[in-house]
Design a protein that fits this description.
By secondary structure, this protein is of the alpha+beta class. It folds into two domains: about 170 residues, Jelly Rolls (Sandwich); about 100 residues, Homeodomain-like (Arc Repressor Mutant, subunit A). It is about 45% helix and about 20% strand. It is built from twelve helices and nine strands. The strands form two sheets. Strands 1-8-3-6-9 form a five-stranded antiparallel β-sheet, with helices on one face. It has a four-stranded antiparallel β-sheet with strand order 2-7-4-5, with no helix packed on it. Helix 3 packs antiparallel against helix 4 and helix 9 packs antiparallel against helix 10. The radius of gyration is 21 Å and the shape is globular. The two termini are about 30 Å apart.
């Protein structure tokens, strides 16, 4: 499994929800804080979105802090990766239509990749630059408009695809304006190689030196580069990922604790118990029970 799939996999909770909304002239609504991510795609008319992290009207991407407003035209999208409160308004005399998607996420332990995204990210319609995102939006629109058989199976899958393409586009936009962070770490072959190794083989006895050697750098050079891009030292992220994986296994499987310990890279029950309790404030057994 690739890094982005891993990130979404450990954060997602339940099935996504999707609806096609109709906004009459003057319509407005306040979207409260949500335990997950939201997205909107305008299919007719325009919708104005206001919230923290949005640019001034007319900007092509979202980078600045503070409240601001953007007006979405047909095909434009907005991703709300942290479930931040925001408002939506139809500012015109015509009827607007837009797709509204919701993805429940485990906000108690968000992956650092999501920290790298602003509260709201706007993506203007760019079929030439993001053809896969544009195509997925068209597929979702078609399923909603045509009322085809099997849509209850197709739509959740398409919504998952849409989320991935939205995050990919967001990371691509961010990478152009940032020299560090997860958006650049995923495109840096050296750091991405070490991250894939940690995700694919978390139980291996990794050290900074062995990860650096695997990535093709000296220990010191690798540690500096990894920390600058990821925002954490290599072994700090390794520990974080191992315990995140352990928690996911406790939530979603019936594996005995000994198997969870081994899969998450802990050679002894004592070491695992101490690390898990330090991270989650309770024993692994109690965590699974709750």
């Amino acid at each position: 499994m690739d890094l982005l799939s891993d990130v979404i996999g450990v954060m997602r909770v339940g099935r996504p929800a999707l609806s096609l909304e109709v906004a009459d002239p003057g319509w407005q609504t306040a979207a409260p804080v949500f335990e997950g991510a939201r997205c909107y795609v305008v299919t007719a008319g325009c919708v104005r979105v206001t919230g923290p992290g949005l640019p001034k009207t007319g900007s092509s991407s979202i980078t600045g802090p503070g409240d601001a407003t953007v007006t979405l035209q047909v095909g434009d999208a907005v991703l709300v990766p942290h479930g931040t409160a925001h408002t939506l308004v139809n500012p015109t005399d015509g009827v607007a239509r837009f797709l509204s998607g919701a993805y429940r996420m485990d906000q108690a332990r968000p992956h650092p990749l999501f920290h790298d995204l602003p509260d709201l990210v706007g993506l203007p319609s760019r079929p030439d630059r993001y053809p896969s995102l544009h195509a997925s939006i068209e597929l979702v629109r078609g399923e909603l408009d045509e009322q085809m058989y099997g849509r209850d199976v197709v739509l959740p899958a398409l919504l998952d695809v849409l989320l991935v393409y939205l995050i990919r586009a967001c990371l691509s936009e961010r990478a152009q304006s940032q020299a560090t962070g997860w958006c650049t770490a995923l495109t840096d072959e050296v750091i991405a190689r070490s991250l894939r190794a940690v995700h694919e083989r978390p139980a291996e006895a990794w050290t900074v030196a062995s990860l650096g050697a695997f990535a093709g750098l000296s220990r010191a050079a690798f540690a500096r580069r990894f920390t600058a891009m990821v925002g954490q030292p290599p072994l700090t992220y390794l520990t974080w990922w191992r315990l995140t994986l352990a928690a996911r296994l406790l939530q979603t499987t019936d594996l005995p604790l000994s198997a969870v310990e081994q899969r998450s890279g802990y050679g002894s029950a004592y070491a695992f118990a101490n690390a898990f309790k330090r991270e989650y404030g309770m024993s692994a057994g109690r965590y699974r029970h709750q």
